[in-house]
Design goal:
Length: 346
Amino acid sequence: MRFAIVNDLRIAQEILRHAIAQIPGASVAWVAIDGRDAIQKCKGDKPDLILMDMVMPVMDGAVATRAIMKECPCPILVVTSSIEGNLALVYEALSAGAIDAVHTPTMGPNGSILGVEALARKARVALAATAVQISRTMPHTIAAKLPAITSQKYGTSKVPLVVIGSSTGGPNALSVVLRGLTVAPSCCTVIVQHIDVAYAPGLTHWLTGEIKRPVKVATEGESLSAGSTIVASSADHLVLRDGLLRYVVEPAEQIFRPSVDVFFASVVQERVRPSVAILLTGMGRDGAQGMRSLRDAGWHTIAQDQATSVVWGMPGSAVEMGGVVEILPLDQIGAAASRWVQSRVT
């Protein structure tokens, strides 16, 4: 694994060098002192993973992330001394395509490097989230016939459920979809975004400010209620069980935690009355199988199109598996989901 360090502070560069040296199989590809320097070096030598600081002279890490994902796409992990203090920049970088965020390792009183384990864990997840590339010539509607659902026995919940999965580039995509989801007051919206449990509360706060209505983290044992917009917040998986939201460890081997596939599968198993499932931008394939299962169960499944996705891995994989009814540009998804829900409620 070849890591690139983007940080203007010499001490931070050296600490990151020492931290990388403790990760088996890892080495330093290059070091950049600001965002502009990083863009140029990435064009000439693309590493396996970029460790991107946020606050730097010349060009900050959020702007650099957006440029790199556009000009020379590469997995990027935000590594900054204060995620909370740089919240706006962190979520701007995550919206632009950074995979996750972690605190910069620090030096302990005995000279040891603290925080290497967290950095290594995030790096493994980032490297596992390999983009899945699919042709832009895919049709906008999948021709496979939806299964008959007239004999299906559904759960007792009367609240329409809208489920959303997202990853790389997700925060901004979520804000756009949620703003367009005019049926939100009459339904329950549950979101699984690939993000560390420590930063999920910050994401809900950021989204609340962006869409001008409350967004909260999912709590253990919470029921589905109309008007709620809920985000998974766990190092484990969010599931729907007996009408309540629960956090579970299994499947332990699933590297993405929380997993979109695990949550979508639980919705199918719970026999929730079919509504709308949405899969947004993200690296990897998480959510693709879940979309196929939801579609087979009669759900209206919508995938973000390739042109508006930061990375068309997750939605593209769902399309490839035949799990998508509609492929839409980001700014049309909220309205399309609202129309479908309204057509079933009225």
